[in-house]
Amino acid sequence: MTLNRRHKAILFVTLVLTGCALLLGVELRETLGSMLLGVAFAWAIGSDAASRLCSIVKGASGTFYAWIRLPVAMALAGGLLGAALLYSQANPVVVIVLMCAAGIVMVPLTTSPTQKIWLRIPALLLGGVLFFLAVGGMISTDIIASNRYGGRFVELSVTAFVILLVAMFWLSKGWRLIEAGIGAQPLSETTVLTPPRGWMWGHYVSLFLGIIVLTLWLGLLAWLASSAWSYAPERVTTIKGSNNLLAQVGFIMLLAWWPYRSWRAILGREPNSEAKYLRRHRRVTTIVGMAFVTILALSLTYGIQSGND
What we know:
Layout: H1 5-23, H2 28-46, H3 48-60, H4 62-88, H5 92-105, H6 117-139, H7 143-182, H8 201-231, H9 245-269, H10 275-308
């Protein structure tokens, strides 16, 4: 059987989740059952019948599909969140990472067939309702876990919904800017390569300082959240100083705006159409990404260890 891209993508995610479950100590019977369900899901979604059905639905009414795709995508995100809450025992770090990734992937589905804001708001509200209904439906499949972690499930569901919206309308811009910084741009015939004016290294210094501050703050939040979850996962433990969710999200967005503007200024004055700028931007992106992942990974590790101690 020839595997298409949908087969490969779903099988890859299934194998990754299966490996994570085994590392977290999930029983082999449950792990094998989840893997078989993932294989069956990959076979169904990647089959020719599913492709024909999707084409029929799209061809039936393009406008109808454009209106319902965002609510349906948010309902699927809610189902994924519910599964993550159950299998991770309400781990806040897993929830935030999953919602950030889901929000960035869902960006193409946010385009509306109309530009009128009063017509776009009902679709977003419907998506929010379906999101929480999907979370509740997924959580209700395990009554024991729902009774034990019910408080944290509710708390993290609200947090995850806010993070999903932030990822769709804010993090996606940063992701596109990163892609623009590491992708080669064709050199147009009318393009005149001129050296950038001013002291460009000031923008690089500002970029690294902004990334350091943002990473340290996120690392601190990850350390506190992971230690609190490891110490008492069944309790609703609110980190001191983070009881206002909107203020916390707004402060993180403000910190993220700093390196975002610096990187945007660099790309505006050093186009990737010149090879030396492209090499420099790729090196900077690699260094920043490695530092970001390393600091967050250390924060999570020490946070879980301190919670267990």
